[in-house]
Design brief:
The protein has 386 residues and is α/β, with parallel strands linked by helices. It has two domains: 169 residues, Rossmann fold (3-Layer(aba) Sandwich), CATH 3.40.50; 199 residues, Dehydroquinate synthase-like - alpha domain (Dehydroquinate synthase-like, alpha domain, Up-down Bundle), CATH 1.20.1090.10. 45% of the residues lie in helices and 15% in strands. It contains 16 helices and ten strands. It has a six-stranded parallel sheet, sandwiched between helices. It has a two-stranded antiparallel ribbon with strand order 6-7. The chain has a two-stranded antiparallel sheet with strand order 9-10. Helix 8 crosses helix 9 and helix 13 packs across helix 16. The protein is globular and about 60 Å long. Bound molecules: nicotinamide-adenine-dinucleotide and zinc ion. The site of zinc ion has 5 residues, from helix 13.
Length: 386
């Protein structure tokens, strides 16, 4: 009889690339990423909206892969994306069925081209079929390129909760192809930058200063500036995951989820009508003001953050914050308990103690939040009427 504890070291390589027109003839990035010493199957999933917006893409992929040695395209599957694709528990099978049909194995590649929601669903299918296939993500929205697509998670919503069913799974590679950014509507394109503002605030003060200095160009979606913002944000997210000591979030501290306890709850309260990106913008504004009200962050810095968000026409307020129960308590506070439950332990919410530096807190003061919400609502009204 005895106790036997084994440490099982496992190292993943997280390959992240930036390019434009990944499947243009002569662009070697994708083929250089893949191991092709013997024949490998490739199955490609494309979100319907991307297929519609890029009518030549299927043909480009076919001819690109046909040019490569040992890569065999088995099928291109077109499926709907958007948040709705994460809502039904049966969605995961929509990815798994074609994977099975095409005899995709653990040495094959699953390409997935779409927004963050689509990547989450196909990512879950790829992570569970054969207990994990090689997924190559091609994120197509600003948010997916600057944050979620370079992460190591997937998931679908269940029981009304975001990402309740999902896994941690490091993709084989992520290819951020900037060509996709420019078919988004302007609002979605800008709002994905809320995650860049967030990661700058918790990780990289000089990046926040740069965003502030370039707020006009970002608002105008000036390509070189937009692409630099996306790339810097993606690399900050990925380096936190790789080097932050807790890639699979076993601890309670979640710095990349700054502003997210409210964001997730607002998405839920609006039945996911409010996008993740817009919800994050409001959540970041709120937790930034709260950090100032608690005396951790200089007030002037908090308003700089609000001005940067507003300078990019991102929301700092949403009416779902007003939804209350019979006792008059805002339902948004329920987000704290759900956040705690999701962390699986003690409540830990990150607040700011400087632009570029976060600090973990384990409780919140609702009275102070009430005051911050009033302030933000007022600031949003002034912006609209001014
Ligand atoms: N796995 C993670 O670590 C993680 C992290 C953060 C967020 N997320 C998830 O990501 C999702 C949000 O992702 P999103 O912001 O990319 O939204 P999304 O995937 O819902 O896409 C938004 C809309 O844009 C469309 N679209 C996609 N690419 C386009 C393009 N290039 N041009 C025009 N339209 C395009 C989609 O069809 C959809 O209607 C949420 O479900 C969120 O929970 C996951
Ligand atoms: Zn987020």
């Amino acid at each position: 009889m005895g106790d036997y504890d084994f440490d099982i070291p496992v190292t993943f390589r997280h390959r992240i690339r930036f390019t434009k027109d990944a499947f243009a003839p002569g662009n070697q990035m994708v083929s250089d990423l893949l191991e092709t010493e013997r024949e490998r199957k490739v199955i490609v999933f494309i979100e319907t909206e991307i297929d519609r917006l890029f009518p030549d893409l299927q043909e480009q992929i076919r001819s690109y892969l046909a040019e490569q040695n040992n890569l065999v395209l088995t099928e291109i599957v077109i499926m709907d994306g958007g948040e709705d694709c994460k809502i039904s528990k049966t969605q995961i099978m929509k990815g798994i069925v074609p994977i099975e049909r095409n005899g995709i194995d653990r040495h094959s590649y699953v390409f997935c081209i779409g927004g963050g929601a689509f990547l989450d669903v196909i990512g879950l299918s790829a992570a569970t079929a054969h207990r994990g296939l090689r997924l190559v993500r091609f994120p197509t929205t600003t948010l997916a390129q600057d944050d979620s697509g370079v992460g190591v998670k997937n998931g679908i919503n269940a029981f009304g909760k975001k990402n309740f069913i999902g896994t941690f799974a490091v993709p084989y590679a992520v290819v951020n192809d900037f060509q996709f950014l420019y078919t988004q509507d302007e609002h979605n394109n800008r709002s994905g930058l809320a995650e860049a503002v967030k990661v700058a605030l918790v990780k990289d003060g000089p990046f926040f200063d740069w965003l502030e200095a370039n707020v006009g160009a970002l608002n105008a979606l000036d390509p070189p500036i937009l692409e630099e913002a996306v790339e810097r944000s993606a690399i900050l997210h990925a380096s936190h995951i790789a080097l932050g000591g807790d890639p699979f979030e076993t601890g309670s501290s979640r710095p990349l989820d700054f502003g997210h306890w409210t964001a997730h709850k607002m998405e839920q309260l609006t039945n996911f009508e409010l996008s993740h990106a817009d919800a994050v913008s409001v959540g970041v504004a709120l937790d930034t003001l709260y950090s100032a009200r608690c005396g951790w962050l200089p007030e002037e810095d908090a308003w700089r953050v609000v001005r940067v968000l507003q300078g990019m026409q991102l929301p700092i307020w949403h009416e779902s914050l007003e939804i209350r129960d019979d006792q008059g308590k805002r339902l948004i506070y329920g987000g704290l308990e759900e956040f705690r439950e999701h962390l699986g332990g003690e409540l830990t919410v990150l607040m700011l103690e400087a632009v570029g530096r976060g600090v973990d807190r384990h409780s919140v003061d609702e009275e102070k939040y009430e005051a911050c919400m009033e302030e933000l609502k007022e600031a949003a009204l002034v912006a609209v009427s001014g």
